[in-house]
Design a protein that fits this description.
Radius of gyration: 26 Å
Number of helices: 20
Number of domains: 4
Number of strands: 14
Oligomer: single chain
CATH topology of the largest domain: Rossmann fold
Distance between the termini: 50 Å
CATH superfamily of the largest domain: P-loop containing nucleotide triphosphate hydrolases
Amino acid sequence: METRGRVLVVDDKENILKLFARLLGDTYEVTCAEDGARALALVAAQEFDVVVSDVRMPGADGFEVLRAVKSRYPDTEVVMMTGYATVQDAVEAMRAGAFDYLQKPFLPDAPVELVARAMERRRLRLQAERLGPESPGSDFVFAGAVGRSAAMQEVHRLLAQAARLDITVLLTGETGTGKELAARAVHLNSARREKPFVAVNCGALPAELVESELFGHGKGAFTGAAQAKAGLFEEAHGGTLFLDEVGELPLNAQVKLLRVLQERELRRVGETRPVQVDVRVVAATHRDLRAAAAQGRFREDLFYRLNVFPVQLPPLRERKEDISLLAAHLLDKHYKAMGRTLEGMTPEALRTLVGYPWPGNVRELENALMRAVAVATGPSVTERDLPPEVRERQEGSLPGGAAKHLPYRDALDLARDRFSREYLTALLRDFEGNVTRAAEHAGIERESLHRLLKRYSIRSDDFKPRS
């Protein structure tokens, strides 16, 4: 007969303990502790598979329970429970090793699903230890990435596998989804972690200097080349080279990149001597390289060389369950950076964040919260502190329905403003923040477009390619 998993539930509210016992009792062996001190005593006496603990309790709090559990039983998974006012505590707990958090009030199926996932995570960790060092790492660290959605868990799994395999990785996804964070995670969790991580945005390199920057040049190779210079491939020797926006490389540079990937050697511009390089390449793009190859804008053979291990990073609108945790993480980051002391975010503000489609993904969310922290005057960030485009553009909302209480002309102005903001946002996204090209496409003067962007508080820099 299979042994039932053991769960410890810690909360100073008797009704919470009874609820967990009822929800989990048929599946697991459930032990309840009415405070942190009792939990510490139980943890000292026996090992649990999963511990579910409230964050705020009199005496020993959830952080003490977490530290005690992880110190004594590193493979035990810990889930923290928190209310709206203490979501930031839960974020801190996850940084300290907690598996996830459960926000009060919750639906009855939430703890059941969360404990089941924690049990599965523990099973996989123990299995990895039994299989030895060649099994996929369960201690993969994705620094700066916050997310508990199924989509991000799959990204986490793929990146952990890629880190161990030492192969070329192609990261795809919209601008602002965190491709450079993912590339750094692959490097830092690989056998190359002690060697350099070198990042370059291929789209930001002048066309005439791309080959020199990537592959280096010899003395006198061109006007101004007073001395020989190693390129980024040589700088990254033994480590990882991150080629961001690789789809922007000119075709002649694509030929040389393909040769380096195939032969693991390069020739500096103006030299014939081959230079051996040992580099893992992680490339990233927001474009469809397969389509670009079909159109002759990207070498098909290079695409297949790069696409050895593809990882798609999901847009924020497809993992909205991560927004509350991301918001808490980013607010904490910017509170500290600005020297502010705030309690968190109101439920209304959080609902507004969840209702916005985030075309700029995590980077746009971070910019919005930076502004909110800067303008907030009360103890918490409120809906009023969020940028107007976030407050006004909610998915599924219709301007007419939202403004039916207004006079016709005011409602028309509101609809016009919403249309203008959405049109300008889509325009800049399509042209990657290039105001000149966007203005030409829209059929208006560049200065007129600048005035419109200023009127609607839209920054062209937010749409320029970066990971």
